[in-house]
Write a structure and sequence with these properties.
alpha+beta, five-stranded mixed β-sheet, two-stranded antiparallel ribbon
Amino acid sequence: MFADNDDTSLFIWWFAHAADVVAGWFGQGSGERHLLYSTSMHHPAGVNGGWNTSVLGLSLPLVPVTWIAGPIVAFNLAIIAAPVASALAAAALAHRFVPRLPAFVGGFAYGFSTYLVSQSSGHLNLAFAVLPPLVALGIVDLLRPGPRARPLLTAGWLGCAIGWQFYLSTELLAGTFLAALCLLLALALFARPVLVRGGLRLLGGGLLASGIAVLIGTPLLLAMFTLPGAPGQAIRPHGVWNNDLLDPVVPGRYTLLGGGETPIPRQVPLDPSEIGGYVGIVWLGFALVTVIALWSSPRWARAVRVTAVAGLLAWLLSMGAPWYAAGRTFWEVTPFRAVELLPVLGNVLPMRLAVHSTLALAVLLAIGLHAGLRSRRRRVRVLAPVAVLASLLLIAPGAVPARPVIVPAFYQEAYAAVIPEGSVVKTLPRPLAMATPHADEAMVWQAVTGMHYRETGGYFIGSTPEQPIIYSAPPDPLDAILEEESGEPLPDGAEARGREAIDALRADGVEFVVVAVDGRFLPRSALDIASYTSRAAGSPYLEVGGVYVIDLR
């Protein structure tokens, strides 16, 4: 698996779910019929795909790959394609200002930036960041005057791109909306004549694109707000996922200059995939020189001013509220405080807005390179590409770990003979709300069987009547017994508490308990768990293919 953390297990599960639902259209599959809601995870309550990273925009096109090669291969194909697709989208934006070569360099800097490489270590929905450059490109094209302007065509493809983004990441969509506001503000400040001349095209095209996008996104919006499982409060606490003022100059884990934990203190330990604000002192310096040198240029003034200010505003938003420098608060009430109060937008993690400031820097890199190569001064013509090369070297990505997925042999063949199709299974170790590798592999095991059974556990965003927000299936009575006082021997499973725990599982429809022999994060040894559960259920355990199976029927 091309990943570092284990959020990837969630994506692999949704790839398998999409393939299973599509198979149902042809009379195959497990019987699941809804692409955005499933009771195959967190059974019987289910999971709302509208509030989770169901990535239908990628999992549906890759259904044939999932059928033929499995969901792990399909996921790997998508995550490897993510930086390339993002780079090409950014290159298309830069090409509106510069020729192909510098545009390609700028696109490369964006697609293989620290931010996108870091997100590719676990977050497919955020690593596939084609929308930010496409939205900026759409705004530029809608403002374009003259015979080359095609506002209807631009509004059409832009609406389709935004609509598609509903099925990749609604958070990236919401963040791109904030970045678009930053861009419009920068246009109002530094390109008002352009905004006035093209205002009607921008307004009309924007409304048409928005209508198309909402039409495409309606099924997901209906799932979010009409189906069960929606969270009842903000998904993440505020003031934690904020970029630090020093992040742009401190190498992250996934750069050749980094490779370890960032020395910047955080409010809580963060998943390294979230720390992607690094761009390097040379890239920042080159962008600053480009802006200063071209600030008054008749040709480039508007482009560099708007790009620089829009990128700066996006970066300030990415610092969240409060602002930190070297881990210390230096400003409490910041612009992002207003965003936190808004519905939906308040769920955007500010750190993730760094993708937009990175895009602005990539465009400035392309403009600066082109202007430098065309300079009349030989020294500038030499220094510009050298500075760009140094910028790229300083952000050069280190290898994102590729790690094996531990799948017991049971899930490759024996499962079909032991567990009838459609059965309800409790798997141990149960999926946990942790980004740690192997924490949620039980979801992958279910996925590689082609969703042969339904699972009580799961790693997801949801809620219960008692809890407004949950990130995994709550522990059941059996989990409570296994996880308490883990240093003490388990009592006799035949005692009343053990039997009651099994009765509670049966009441929820659980038919089998499966314990992986080599499962990570088991609260006890696999044999102890199997023996206890077997005694409590009054049913012998079966050891097969690296798992213990206890039949509760």
